[in-house]
Amino acid sequence: MSDLAEHSSDFILNPHLDRARPYGEELRGILSLAGAQAAHDAISRWEAYAPTPLRDLPSLADRLDIAQLLYKDEGKRFGLKSFKALGGAYAVDRIVAARGRDGLTVTCATDGNHGRSVAWGARRAGVPAVIYLHETVSEGRAEAIRAFGAQVVREGRTYDDSVRACAEAARRHGWQIVSDTSWPGYEEVPKDVMQGYAVLAMEAEAQGARPTHVFVQGGVGGLAAGVLSYRWEKLGAERPILVVVEPETAACLFESARNGTLTTVGGDLDTIMAGLACGEPSVLAWRILDPGADAFMTIADRAAADVMRLLAQLGVVGGESGVAGLAGLVKASADPVLRRALKLDASSRVLCYGTEGATDPEVYSSIVGRTAEEVEA
Ligand SMILES: Cc1ncc(COP(=O)(O)O)c(C=O)c1O
Fold first, then answer.
1. pLDDT band with cut points at 50, 70 and 90 for residue 2
2. How many CB atoms lie within 10 A of CB 272?
3. How many angstroms does the Cα of residue 253 sit away from the middle of ligand 1?
4. Among 13, 22, 186, 304, whose CB has the most other CB atoms within 10 angstroms?
């Protein structure tokens, strides 16, 4: 008979979770329902705004022995192909509104999707952008950023290296950093980025999602914190069970939960889930996830690739990082120990955030064996 101890390397119930704790003032100072509403009001006025589809996948739900599987498909978000369009671009808007355009250059480090959002937001706002990419970010992702008129700088071996290179250049040139992660002393902009992500949860709710469980992928934790904050403040202890899913080679949130304190993981963070290849949690996101997330788990690259192919059979295009939450659900639902630990059963309604489509078309078709267009046809 296996038990949770046998999962010590890939699953942990949050030892700091206090489900009865209300979403108090300290947390509302980071993210709030009022902030989410303001983000929604602003973003829904952008040209070409449309809520992304909430897909009901009954055949897959059957297979996983749950009542409902909802997949919020961000593959077409503002033509940027990922939910990140909501965060960085919203933060750029807020900066321009507060400071004006004069002398403003925005910059960020990115593994692709956030930089695309900042570059797009900068073009919309009419300000220059300089985007830092580390070595292993594919050229396809770099090209997509240049296409919005941004300058791309390659520096560092990992995402975390490029964050430092960007910070250093910003100091030298007086540029404004628009980061999706936060560190001590740098909090205001990442708050706006995460607040933009909360729009995902608002849209899903307006589209009828009433999940008992949410499986969401973690990079630095901003997305998970954004969607958790919204439901926690609104529903308190009645909120769905939230599981954070990370690649096993870049599991900084999982390790933070295990160590009971913010933890940086080293190594080359190598994973096909490029958007999740982060070794350092966002300090702000962690302040929300530490007391509020229910569980943390990790998955192998193979699991993400399998789920990409599974979705493709249903005509749904999910990118490597975008499917990680669903891959976590597939893994958990097949394991009696994890099912029990997460109270996952035939009455569960699960929401997964499909946070990207084929953001790198070449990588997508090399994994799935068909192009995104062929899958959608
Ligand atoms: C497609 C995709 N999903 C999820 C995430 C994770 O977001 P966060 O880093 O805020 O945890 C990212 C981050 O870049 C991403 O690109």
1. low
2. 21
3. 13
4. 304
Max distance between CA atoms of the chain, in angstroms, equals 66
pLDDT at position 267: 87
Pocket test for ligand 1, best of 84, 110, 180, 183 (most atoms within 8 A of CB): 84
At 1 the pLDDT is: 45
Catalytic residue selected from 73, 111, 160, 290: 111
Fold that domain 4-82+189-376 belongs to in CATH:
Rossmann fold (3.40.50)
- What is the Å distance from ligand 1's center to 367 Cα? 19
Contact residues for 204 (Cβ-Cβ < 8 A; gap 6+)? 54, 70, 72, 351
Query: 370: Cβ–Cβ under 8 A, 6 or more apart, which residues?
Result: 312
Better-predicted residue by pLDDT, 3 or 356? 356
User: Which residue has the CA at smallest separation from atom 13 of ligand 1?
Assistant: 275
Task: Output the CATH code of domain 88-179.
Answer: 3.40.50.1100
Q: Give the predicted TM-score (pTM) of the model.
A: 0.96
Nearest CA to ligand 1 atom 8: 219
Residue 111 has what pLDDT?
Answer: 86
Numbered ranges of CATH 3.40.50.1100 in the chain: 4-82+189-376, 88-179
Catalytic-residue membership of 301: no
